[in-house]
Design goal:
Helices cover 40% and strands 25% of the residues. The chain is α/β, with parallel strands linked by helices. It has one domain: Alpha-Beta Complex (Maf protein). It starts with a strand and ends with a helix.
Length: 217
């Protein structure tokens, strides 16, 4: 896995925050943060999500598990607080783990039209969300969510530049693309990130009950 290092900054703001039920979500993508914040509030309103827009090494490769864990380890070492990392991407089933984590570079290189040319002979695809919650030194949990569907021909209009592939992805069982489903109850049934976050919030709740039980004992 190749690593491209960037300068670390904006760290001191996060170091003194130790409140329970505050989750530090490390991302520089405001759209992703807003989406995760909305999903978390629906799953458990008592959880407060805080964005940490800090520079992390740009890990490059096709192994999403290694990339997400490496980011989480780095974020933990910088902030010394439990952190949540979300990585993933869109995958074409005809290829082996592609484009996945490289989706940003694929979009920059060939755009949606080029991606359609890769997919049109076999448009089966899926979105994968891979969450890592790193909550103590060498202690972490992993949660995944997947949404299967098909790629459709792009219209030439990109409605959400930071999430362009949602315009051309229709989940299995729906007649709408992910952009059209955005903000609806139907979206929650399909959305890969919501599925992963559901597992995460369920684990948090079980872990909280376990700790309370240990105290009572």
């Amino acid at each position: 896995m190749n690593v491209k290092y960037m300068n670390s900054s904006k760290i001191s703001h996060y170091l003194d925050e130790t409140q329970e039920n505050r989750i530090v979500f490390v991302t520089g993508n405001k759209d992703k943060f807003k989406e995760v914040e909305d999903f978390i509030s629906q799953l458990n309103p008592s959880i407060t999500l805080e964005q940490a827009d800090i520079d992390l090494p740009e890990y490059q490769g096709l192994d999403i598990a290694k990339i997400a864990l490496a980011k989480a380890e780095c974020a933990w070492s910088l902030l010394k607080r439990p952190v949540l990392i979300d990585d993933g991407g869109i995958y074409l089933e005809r290829f082996n783990n592609f484009p996945g984590p490289l989706v940003k570079y694929v979009f920059e290189g060939i755009g949606l039209e080029g991606f359609w040319l890769l997919a049109k002979d076999d448009p089966r695809a899926y979105f994968l969300s891979y969450l890592v919650y790193y909550h103590a030194p060498n202690s972490y949990e992993v949660f995944q969510g997947t949404c299967y569907g098909t790629i459709i021909e792009p219209t030439g209009i990109i409605t959400r530049l930071r999430m362009p592939f949602r315009d051309i992805f229709v989940p299995q069982g729906s007649s709408k693309n992910l952009t059209e489903l955005h903000g609806t109850q139907e979206e929650l049934f399909f959305h890969h990130r919501f599925k992963a976050l559901s597992h995460f919030v369920e684990w948090l709740s079980a872990e909280s009950k376990r700790k309370q039980s240990n105290i009572l004992c």
